[in-house]
Structure formats: structure tokens, C-alpha cells
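Recap from last week: sequence in, structure out.
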Amino acid sequence: MTSSDYEAEREVDLGRWRRALVAWWWLPAGGLLVGAVAGAVLALGGGTNYKAEALMSLGQPFSPGGGSPVASFSTNPRAVNEIIHSESALKEAAARCDTTPRELRGRVTSAQVAVGVGIQRAGVPLVTVTVQGPQRKKVECAANDLARIVRLRTTQPYVGTKIATFERSLQTYQDQLDSLVPLVRLLERELNDRSLAPLDRLVIATQLDNAQTRRGQLLGLQTAAQQQLALAENVESAKVVQPAAAVKAAARSRRNSILVGALIGLILGAIAAIAVDARGVRAP
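Predicted C-alpha cells:
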């Protein structure tokens, strides 16, 4: 078949379709009307939808000495997505927020936030945890609780151990400092006793000097541990930068719904007209 034959056949098909649409015009018109009405009803029945979004920093763990960053699953934004979609996390958040895992399932998302060059270079990922639903308080509660679960599960394995170690060290240093206080006071009183022999006074002065030196060493260790603890808590740990607050999500546009419904109805009506005409049924 030549190209001219194809053109002739296509013109015949188009002509037949035009005649079908003219003969059965009320089918496309009816589809247009029904589609527009269906779109309007759908827009009205959409209900109110709320969205709550919590902003998180996943933190950047460092080596025990604090010298270099440590690669960990906790700094991978994909870990957040896996955690918030896990059944255990959904059940825990649902129990705290007076809802069910079924109501949360499919309405929870996470996304990495585009950040500036400086933060990217420091390797601190920012991630949002978003929950959508028809009830404001439950949506807000679920987003915040899922962010809490992410913070705990990404911090506890490594950074949580470091924090616990620094806290125990600080407590040990403080206990030793507290035990030195009465000793220093006792030695100071003894040193001020003029009745002591010079050799005894020399021994007490030496003991007092050792106690003061030890106190200075403990204060230095305490300061270093406090700085390491602050680094672990404020930089290495995951944390919620901005708690979630529920807001109304973008409502479905009634105008767009009517237009889309009308277009779909028009297309279906046109197809129905062509199909009916192809069967040889006469138009009323």
C-alpha cells in the first residue's frame, strides 16, 4: 500500500469519526456535563487535610578522640526513611498519638533538605519527617514522635555510648574533687598550726601542694570531658531542629477538578459515540 493509500484511508476514518460525533453529539456533551459534575463533587468531598513536618539534623559522629568523622548508618538519610516506615516505629507512634498504624501507613514521608555548602562540607544531613492526615493533633503528634524515634535509634548505638561514658567520667571526677575538699581544708588548718615542728610543717605543706595539684588535674580532666560531652550532645547526636506544627495542606482546586472531570467525560463520550456509530446503530 502506497503512502497515498494511507492518506486516503486516514481521511476516510477521520471523516467517519466526524460524522459519528455530529450524529451522536449528545454523548460527548453528556460526558462533558457528567464529568464536570463528578469533578465538582470530588472537590467538595475531598475534606480537610493537614500536614506536619519536623526538621531533623542527623548529626555527625566523630572518632573517640574527636579527631575525624566516622561513617555510620545514622548519617544516611535513607536510614530515616526505613525507620519511619518500619512497623515497630508506626506502632509506637500510633500508641502515643491515639491513632492506629493503619492510619499512619502510607501517610509518612521523609526527604533530605538541600543545604548550604558549609553544612554539606561538614557532613551534617538535614532531613524532614512529614505526616499527613485529616486530624490536626494526631498528625502533629505523629510527626514529632516519629522524629523522636529517629533521634533515639540513630543516636543510641554509638553516640549514646559516648555520652554515657562522658557522663560517668564527669561523675567520677566530681566525686574525686568532692573528696579532696575536706582533705585540703584539714591540711590548711594543720599548716596554720604554729605549734608544729618545722619538719612536720614541711610534710603537711608537701601534702597540701600535692592535693592542690591533683585538684587542678581533675579540673582539667573535668573541663575536657564537659567539652567532649557538649560535642557529642550538640553535634554528633541526631536532634530535632524544628518540631512539627500541623498546617492545612494545599486543598484540591475545585476549578481544576471540574476541568479535568469535564475533559475526561468529553473524551469518554466521544469514544462512546464513535463506537456506537461503528456498530451501525442509527442516531435518534
